Amino acid sequence: MVIGMRIIDYLLRLRTGLGYPGKGFIIAGLGILIPLLLMTLLAPLISPYDPTKGSRDILQPPSPAHFFGTNNLGQDLFSRILWGGRVVLTVVLVSTILSATIGVPLGLLSGYLGGKIDRALAMIMDSIYAFPGLILAIALASVLGPSIINAAAAIAVVYIPTYFRMTRGPTLQLKASQYVEAAIATGAPTKRIIFRHILPNLAPTLTVVFTLNTADSILTEAGLSFLGFVVTPPTPDWGFDLKAGQPFLPAGYWWLITFPGIFIILLSLGFGLLGEGLNELLSPKEKTI
Amino acid sequence: MGLGRFIAVRALLMIPTVLILLTFVFFVMRIIPGDPILAMVGMKAPPQRIEELRHMAGLDKPPYIQYIEYLWNVLHGDLGRSMIWGRRPVINEIMDRFPATLELTISAFTVSVLIGLLTGSMAALRKGSKTDTAMRLYGLIAWTLFIPWFGMMLQIVFGVWLHWLPIAGRIDPDLAPPRITGLYVLDSILTGRWDSLVSAIRYLILPSITLGVVLSGAYTRLVRNNLVEVFGQDYMTTYRAMGLPPKSLLRKALRNAFIPLITMMGLQFAILLAGAVLTETTFSWPGMGTFLLERIIYVDYTTVQGTIVFFALFVALINFIVDIIYAIIDPRVRY
Question: What is the pLDDT of residues B110-134, one digit of tens each?
Fold first, then answer.
């Protein structure tokens, strides 16, 4: 609710030309994300070739027939990038939603209820949080085997502590606030306090965390894919295509790696910019998360 | 609390952390997958071979016995034996590869802090200006640069097109210095082999820049924000009123802005290690990352698990050291 109202508030200000904090970042972020999302959504309509079908035109440099050139199997790289975006987004969305649905309620309950369980949970989450994310994802993916679902699960595990910490910290603060104390004093049930008084106030922070975390998990997905833990040929995926182009690098076939990489960075940057902007828009003070 | 006591308390606090990490790794590697060997080999292997591998990894025992054995062994510094070729102890194999990763991470870390200090100071000195926004953007873009892509772009430009620097490996194979520490740069200096030193540095440049630039983004932002805060303090106003030139002002401010930077370094270190895995793969750098991936392909389960445990313990140790350094620099932390 809070977010919705604030966004409407800022949209109104936008129309009156007053501007709002983080405007440049939000516009830049959306400017990158909207075309990218459209591209991947419309892949079946706009993709000029079958992304998995090879041809005799191997290792062709970019040309009007093949915007991004072709690879060693004669597959059209532009089509592969359009379709590959779907894999990236599927893995990232599934994993982000998974880790948020586990991490947020856990952090909320743990922080609000407190006690020994809270302390133990916080310690466990801190330990996992300190572990290098990609290495943890590699460990999980290696014992689960390469697949889109397994990769999403592995990435989800990596980011649960992030959501837990980002929810628990503010929950502790809110719990100590006067209005929550007042609600407790008037005998409001715990459920009502959590859902009516705490969760809505967490929404702005969580929106920012969600956006910035997506930017990060895109890079983790690309890393896992690059190392061969997400898809198997001939499925297109940006990180995997980058890896497939690597053997041809010493011979100077630059387009095999340039384009998949640029799309990974653009997608991550888009969410990063949007997150920065939302952070300024939704946080009362200029603070960094 | 005296420093000695602080260190003792922190060391004791490491015990639950390490136990949690070891238990977590056990869960990740053995419980979640159900049958890790089957997942790693794939369905193609004959059942006999799978049974054999399972036995070698100790996976044929009940889980709670596996867990106790695993904890017991790790706490004794025993990470098991590799499941391939000579069946060497995993810890020896790791020690063969670890110096390469250490050399890369130290060098990349230096690059990232230097860039972070430079860009962050530039932004803070011209707060609110175009430079400030540009540096903020730099921080964001640097952080999203996908390591393999950035590394390969450098390889194409400086290796393939310009022929300035090598693109794969750690040193010219003929020039490897005798092993003392395993860090080629250090070993070359210690043994006075200058041709080895030049070769080691030439191979180190591109991987370090790749990893260093990507990590510098976080420092840019941190240095900038810390400096802006310090510049706003009363004592800085006093210095300014005293007529100190901007250069010495910056020097005084940086000294104070550095303290929060150190707490970040523990967390940054985890990111540094994760980044090193990708950097090593991109540059065929024979470190822990390439080692881990190589052994995953060979289904060397014990080694894979041992390497993950090693990473976990290493990160815990670094965080411990960072805490102590912080306590030495800022005595308030001890209370």
Answer: 999 999 999 998 898 888 888 888 9
Q: Which residue of A has its CA nearest to B282?
A: A246
For residue range B221-251, what is the model confidence (pLDDT) as tens digits? Answer: 888 988 888 888 888 888 888 888 888 888 8
* Of residues B152, B221, B315, nearest to A132 (C-beta): B315
Residues B33, B116 within the same domain: no
Q: Which residue of B28, B165, B213, B272 is the best one to mutate when testing the A interface, meaning the one whose CB has the most A CBs within 10 A?
A: B28
Cα within 13 Å of Cα(B163), Cβ side: 1
Q: Does A227 touch chain B (CB under 8 A)?
A: yes
- Please give the full DSSP string across B227-265, using - where no structure is assigned: HHHHHTSHHHHHHHHTT--HHHHHHHHHHHHHHHHHHHH
Query: What pLDDT shows up at residue B101?
Result: 95
In a domain? residue B284: yes
Residues B184 and B286 in one domain: yes
**Which residues span the domain enclosing B237?**
106-297
Residue A123 Cα, gap to closest chain B Cα (Å): 7
For tokens 């609390």, the residue is B1
Q: What is the pLDDT of residue B25?
A: 87
Chain B positions touching A273 (Cβ under 8 A) are 140
* Domain identity same for B237 and B114: yes
Asked if the structure places residue B306 within a domain, the reply is no
Residue A28's pLDDT band, with cuts at 50, 70 and 90, is very high
Asked if residue B309 is part of any domain, the answer here is no
- Average confidence (pLDDT) over A131-152: 90
Whether A135 and B311 lie within 8 Å, measured CB to CB: yes
* CATH number of B293's domain: 1.10.3720
Length of chain B: 335
Lowest mean pLDDT among A20-24, B156-160, B266-270: A20-24
From the list A227, A273, A276, the residue facing B281 with the nearest CB is A227
The answer on pLDDT for B331 being more than 80 is no
Question: Which residues on B lie below 8 Å from A140 (Cβ)?
Answer: 28, 32
pTM of the model: 0.90
Do B142 and B252 sit in the same domain of this protein? yes
Does B327 reside within a domain? Answer: no
What is the average pLDDT across B177-187? 87
B41 with B169, same domain?
A: no
Chain A partners within 8 Å of B161 (Cβ): 252
Asked if B234 and B171 sit in the same domain, the reply is: yes
Give the number of domains in chain B.
Answer: 2
B65 in the same domain as B178: no
**Three-class secondary structure of residue A76 per DSSP:** strand
Quickly count: other Cβ atoms within 10 Å of residue A289's Cβ.
11
Q: Which of B75, B96, B125 is the last residue of a domain?
A: B75
pLDDT over 80 at A119, yes or no? yes
Q: Which of A131, A145, A264 has the CB atom closest to B270's CB atom?
A: A131
Integer-rounded Cα Rg, in Å, for chain B is: 23
Q: Say whether A242 and B274 touch across the interface (CB within 8 A).
A: no
Task: Choose the mutation target among A98, A124, A138, A142 for the interface with B, i.e. most B CBs under 10 Å.
Answer: A142
CA distance A98 to A85: 20
8 A C-beta contact, residue A247 and residue A263 = no
Phi, psi of A70 (to 5 degrees): -125, 160
- CB-based contact A242 B148, cutoff 8 Å: yes
Q: Residue A76 — φ and ψ, nearest 5°?
A: -80, 120
